[in-house]
Design goal:
This is DUF3307 domain-containing protein. InterPro entries: Phage_phiKZ_Orf197. Keywords: Membrane, Transmembrane, Transmembrane helix. The protein contains 9 helices and no strands. Helix 4 packs antiparallel against helix 5 (about 85-100), helix 5 runs parallel beside helix 8 (about 150-175) and helix 6 (about 105-115) crosses helix 7. The chain has one domain (about 5-185). By secondary structure, the protein is an all-alpha fold.
Protein backbone atom coordinates (compact mmCIF):
# COMPACT_ATOMS: atom_id res chain seq x y z
CA UNK A 1 0.00 0.00 0.00
CA UNK A 2 1.51 3.35 -1.02
CA UNK A 3 2.09 5.84 1.75
CA UNK A 4 2.71 9.56 1.89
CA UNK A 5 6.36 8.78 2.65
CA UNK A 6 6.64 6.59 -0.46
CA UNK A 7 5.09 9.34 -2.57
CA UNK A 8 7.48 11.89 -1.05
CA UNK A 9 10.47 9.65 -1.84
CA UNK A 10 9.25 9.33 -5.44
CA UNK A 11 8.85 13.10 -5.73
CA UNK A 12 12.22 13.89 -4.15
CA UNK A 13 13.89 11.24 -6.31
CA UNK A 14 12.31 12.68 -9.45
CA UNK A 15 13.68 16.12 -8.60
CA UNK A 16 17.18 14.66 -8.12
CA UNK A 17 16.99 12.66 -11.35
CA UNK A 18 15.67 15.74 -13.19
CA UNK A 19 18.54 17.91 -11.94
CA UNK A 20 21.07 15.21 -12.79
CA UNK A 21 19.49 14.76 -16.19
CA UNK A 22 19.83 18.40 -17.11
CA UNK A 23 23.40 18.67 -15.83
CA UNK A 24 24.50 15.42 -17.47
CA UNK A 25 22.62 15.87 -20.72
CA UNK A 26 23.54 19.49 -21.39
CA UNK A 27 26.55 21.25 -19.81
CA UNK A 28 28.48 18.06 -18.97
CA UNK A 29 27.91 16.24 -22.25
CA UNK A 30 30.91 16.49 -24.55
CA UNK A 31 30.40 17.77 -28.10
CA UNK A 32 31.98 14.53 -29.37
CA UNK A 33 29.46 12.41 -27.45
CA UNK A 34 26.57 14.58 -28.64
CA UNK A 35 27.70 14.17 -32.25
CA UNK A 36 28.67 10.51 -32.11
CA UNK A 37 26.12 8.79 -29.86
CA UNK A 38 23.44 8.47 -32.54
CA UNK A 39 25.69 7.18 -35.32
CA UNK A 40 25.28 5.83 -37.88
CA UNK A 41 22.77 7.91 -39.83
CA UNK A 42 20.18 6.22 -42.07
CA UNK A 43 22.30 7.13 -45.10
CA UNK A 44 25.38 5.58 -43.50
CA UNK A 45 23.36 2.46 -42.69
CA UNK A 46 22.29 2.22 -46.33
CA UNK A 47 25.96 2.38 -47.28
CA UNK A 48 26.76 -0.56 -44.99
CA UNK A 49 27.97 1.11 -41.78
CA UNK A 50 28.04 -0.99 -38.63
CA UNK A 51 24.66 -0.34 -36.93
CA UNK A 52 26.27 -0.22 -33.50
CA UNK A 53 29.04 2.23 -34.38
CA UNK A 54 27.90 5.07 -32.08
CA UNK A 55 27.35 2.93 -29.00
CA UNK A 56 30.80 3.66 -27.55
CA UNK A 57 30.04 7.42 -27.53
CA UNK A 58 26.57 6.75 -26.19
CA UNK A 59 27.89 4.62 -23.33
CA UNK A 60 30.52 7.22 -22.39
CA UNK A 61 27.80 9.85 -22.26
CA UNK A 62 25.50 7.62 -20.21
CA UNK A 63 28.29 6.89 -17.71
CA UNK A 64 28.83 10.61 -17.07
CA UNK A 65 25.07 11.25 -17.03
CA UNK A 66 24.46 8.41 -14.55
CA UNK A 67 27.32 9.52 -12.30
CA UNK A 68 25.81 13.01 -12.10
CA UNK A 69 22.40 11.54 -11.28
CA UNK A 70 24.00 9.35 -8.60
CA UNK A 71 25.49 12.45 -6.96
CA UNK A 72 22.11 14.19 -7.07
CA UNK A 73 20.41 11.13 -5.57
CA UNK A 74 23.04 10.97 -2.82
CA UNK A 75 22.21 14.58 -1.93
CA UNK A 76 18.50 13.79 -1.76
CA UNK A 77 19.18 10.67 0.32
CA UNK A 78 20.48 12.97 3.06
CA UNK A 79 16.91 14.16 3.67
CA UNK A 80 14.71 11.46 2.09
CA UNK A 81 14.55 7.81 3.15
CA UNK A 82 15.44 6.30 -0.22
CA UNK A 83 17.25 2.99 0.10
CA UNK A 84 20.25 1.75 -1.83
CA UNK A 85 18.13 -0.74 -3.81
CA UNK A 86 15.81 2.09 -4.82
CA UNK A 87 18.69 4.36 -5.84
CA UNK A 88 20.25 1.59 -7.94
CA UNK A 89 16.89 0.75 -9.51
CA UNK A 90 16.34 4.37 -10.47
CA UNK A 91 19.82 4.63 -11.98
CA UNK A 92 19.34 1.42 -13.97
CA UNK A 93 16.00 2.58 -15.40
CA UNK A 94 17.41 6.00 -16.20
CA UNK A 95 20.67 4.76 -17.75
CA UNK A 96 19.13 1.99 -19.87
CA UNK A 97 16.30 4.15 -21.20
CA UNK A 98 18.60 7.13 -21.75
CA UNK A 99 21.03 5.04 -23.80
CA UNK A 100 18.28 3.69 -26.05
CA UNK A 101 16.65 7.09 -26.59
CA UNK A 102 20.00 8.73 -27.31
CA UNK A 103 20.64 6.33 -30.19
CA UNK A 104 18.09 8.65 -31.92
CA UNK A 105 16.11 6.12 -33.95
CA UNK A 106 13.34 6.06 -31.30
CA UNK A 107 12.99 9.83 -31.65
CA UNK A 108 13.01 9.53 -35.45
CA UNK A 109 10.30 6.86 -35.21
CA UNK A 110 8.11 9.13 -33.06
CA UNK A 111 8.53 12.04 -35.45
CA UNK A 112 7.72 9.84 -38.46
CA UNK A 113 4.65 8.43 -36.68
CA UNK A 114 3.46 12.00 -35.99
CA UNK A 115 4.27 12.95 -39.59
CA UNK A 116 6.43 15.70 -38.14
CA UNK A 117 9.70 15.08 -39.98
CA UNK A 118 9.94 18.78 -40.86
CA UNK A 119 9.43 20.01 -37.26
CA UNK A 120 12.76 21.73 -36.59
CA UNK A 121 12.52 21.58 -32.79
CA UNK A 122 10.97 18.11 -32.87
CA UNK A 123 14.04 15.93 -32.37
CA UNK A 124 15.17 17.79 -29.24
CA UNK A 125 11.69 18.14 -27.74
CA UNK A 126 10.72 14.51 -28.33
CA UNK A 127 14.11 13.36 -26.96
CA UNK A 128 13.73 15.42 -23.80
CA UNK A 129 10.06 14.47 -23.33
CA UNK A 130 10.88 10.76 -23.54
CA UNK A 131 13.75 11.18 -21.07
CA UNK A 132 11.61 13.09 -18.57
CA UNK A 133 8.75 10.61 -18.82
CA UNK A 134 11.11 7.73 -18.12
CA UNK A 135 12.63 9.63 -15.20
CA UNK A 136 9.18 9.39 -13.64
CA UNK A 137 9.32 5.61 -14.06
CA UNK A 138 12.80 5.66 -12.50
CA UNK A 139 11.54 7.72 -9.54
CA UNK A 140 8.68 5.31 -8.92
CA UNK A 141 11.19 2.44 -9.05
CA UNK A 142 13.33 4.26 -6.48
CA UNK A 143 10.38 4.59 -4.13
CA UNK A 144 9.11 1.04 -4.59
CA UNK A 145 12.16 -1.21 -5.00
CA UNK A 146 13.44 -2.24 -1.59
CA UNK A 147 14.79 -5.75 -2.04
CA UNK A 148 17.56 -7.42 -3.98
CA UNK A 149 14.91 -9.41 -5.85
CA UNK A 150 13.19 -6.22 -6.97
CA UNK A 151 16.53 -4.74 -7.96
CA UNK A 152 17.38 -7.87 -9.94
CA UNK A 153 14.06 -7.61 -11.79
CA UNK A 154 14.77 -3.98 -12.69
CA UNK A 155 18.30 -4.88 -13.81
CA UNK A 156 16.93 -7.65 -16.04
CA UNK A 157 14.37 -5.26 -17.53
CA UNK A 158 17.07 -2.65 -18.20
CA UNK A 159 19.31 -5.24 -19.86
CA UNK A 160 16.36 -6.52 -21.91
CA UNK A 161 15.60 -2.97 -23.10
CA UNK A 162 19.17 -2.43 -24.30
CA UNK A 163 19.28 -5.91 -25.88
CA UNK A 164 16.02 -5.23 -27.71
CA UNK A 165 17.46 -1.93 -28.99
CA UNK A 166 20.51 -3.75 -30.33
CA UNK A 167 18.25 -6.19 -32.16
CA UNK A 168 16.20 -3.34 -33.62
CA UNK A 169 19.38 -1.59 -34.75
CA UNK A 170 20.63 -4.75 -36.46
CA UNK A 171 17.27 -5.13 -38.24
CA UNK A 172 17.29 -1.45 -39.27
CA UNK A 173 20.72 -2.01 -40.81
CA UNK A 174 19.53 -5.09 -42.70
CA UNK A 175 16.52 -3.16 -44.00
CA UNK A 176 18.66 -0.15 -44.93
CA UNK A 177 20.91 -2.41 -47.02
CA UNK A 178 18.03 -3.57 -49.27
CA UNK A 179 18.17 -2.21 -52.82
CA UNK A 180 14.96 -0.18 -52.37
CA UNK A 181 16.24 1.47 -49.17
CA UNK A 182 19.64 2.21 -50.70
CA UNK A 183 18.08 3.93 -53.73
CA UNK A 184 15.76 5.94 -51.45
CA UNK A 185 18.77 7.44 -49.64
CA UNK A 186 20.65 8.49 -52.79
Amino acid sequence: MPTVETAAVAAATYVALFAGHHLGDHPLQSPAAAAGKGAPSPIELARGANPWRGWSWCLRHVLVYTAVQAICLALVAVVAPVGLAGVLAALIVSAASHAVIDRRWVVQWFLAAKRADDWSEGPYLVDQSLHLGLLLVAAVAAASVRTSGGLAAVACAGAALVAAALVVERRRAAHAATPAAVSAHR
